[in-house]
Amino acid sequence: MKKVLIIINDAPYGTEKAYNGLRIANQLNKEHENVEVRIFLLADGANCAMANQITPNGFYNIERMIKISVNKGAKVKICGSCAEARGLKSVTIIEGTEISTLAELTNWIVDSDTVLTF
User: Fold this and answer.
1) CATH number (domain holding residue 82)
2) Closest Cα to residue 3, out of 118, 114, 117, 116?
3) What are the pLDDT tens digits along the chain (118 aa)?
4) pTM of the predicted model, to two decimals?
5) 37 forms bridges with which residues in the sheet?
6) DSSP the chain
7) Number of domains in the chain
């Protein structure tokens, strides 16, 4: 099975980097059953995992996009030190995501066939 790692470094809103990374993840899950999708939220990307995001009608919602990824089998991990630096350790994160480490990210990088960074 091919493994694709998507690293998201950018905040959920303000630019479309997180949005585009998750669009690719969800398209891979939709069209390629033989691909294992992994998403690692790093730096300001850790904010993408906050639960209960509210966006205006008609505007994309990163929480919903992550939930779609998780429901399709993607693994979603959040850099623990990045989350802690941003005060997210006590915030509810999206169900199915988990706090992780830089060591786990480096293992994913080595073990992945393709790594995309946003």
Assistant:
1) 3.40.1260.10
2) 114
3) 999 999 999 999 999 999 999 999 999 999 999 999 999 999 999 999 999 999 999 899 999 999 999 999 999 999 999 999 998 888 899 999 999 999 999 999 999 999 999 9
4) 0.95
5) 4
6) -EEEEEEE-S-SSSSSHHHHHHHHHHHHHHH-TTEEEEEEE-GGGGGGGBSS----TTS--HHHHHHHHHHTT-EEEEEHHHHHHTT-TTSPBPTTEEEE-HHHHHHHHHH-SEEEE-
7) 1
Other Cβ atoms less than 10 A from the Cβ of 74: the count is: 23
Dihedral of CA atoms 95, 101, 104, 110 in degrees, nearest 10, equals 120
What is the distance between the alpha carbons of residues 114 and 108, in angstroms, rounded to a whole number? 10
Best CA proximity match to 94, nearest among 70, 60, 73? 70
Q: How far is the C-alpha of 11 from the C-alpha of 14, rounded, in Å?
A: 7
For residue 7, what are the domain limits?
A: 2-117
Placement of tokens 């891979």 in the chain: 28
CB 86 within 8 A of CB 99: no
